[in-house]
Every structure is written in C-alpha cells, then in structure tokens.
Design brief:
With about 90 residues, the chain is an alpha+beta fold. It has one domain (about 20-90): Translation Initiation Factor IF3, CATH 3.30.110. About 15% of the residues lie in helices and about 40% in strands. It contains 1 helix and 7 strands. The protein has one helix at about 55-65, and strands at about 1-5, 5, 20, 25-30, 35-45, 75, 85-90. A 5-stranded mixed β-sheet has the order 3-4-6-7-5, with helices on one face. A two-stranded antiparallel ribbon has the order 1-2. The longest helix has 15 residues, at about 55-65. It is globular, with a radius of gyration of 14 Å. The chain starts with a strand and ends with a strand. The relative contact order is 0.25.
Length: about 90
Amino acid sequence: MMAGGLVLGQVDSNSLAVVDKIDGYCIFIYSQPVSKYEVLGEAKSYATPYNGLNERMNRIIKTTIKKYPTADGIIITFKKGMGNDLGIAIKFQ
C-alpha cells in the first residue's frame, strides 16, 4: 500500500528529523515517531479560530500531560477552524 509515495513501513531518509522536547516530552506535530511506540490514550482541547497556534499547542500539551503524565511523547493534530485539537500520548517500546 502506498502513502505519500512511500510503501507503508518504510522510512524515507529525507523525512527523518530531530524531535524537539517540551518539558521532557517528545512533541510530534502532524508527524509520528519512526521508533515503535504504544498509544496510552488521547486528550482533546477545544480551539477556536481566534486561538493562536502557540496557544493551541501549549493547551493540548498541558491537557495531554495532565491526563497521561508517564507518556514519553505526544502526537498532535490540530483541527481546522473550531473544534477539538487532539493529543495522542505515547510510550516508546
């Protein structure tokens, strides 16, 4: 199966990156880790078009950390316009 020009399960060396940490948690925005991980759960944070990206990011990180303090990282997806931003708490294997 193809996704974005790649066969799923393969990693394009051009898409590898150094991941920033916030408060010790690896933060993935519109991306996911290459390493194996377990999903601990999800957290949602309501956003409006008036919230700036930094405010939305900080809010979903805080919400996810509060709900899953033992997580190693957070995969973040922002909702366009109004709605719930999503933080997926992960633990590396």
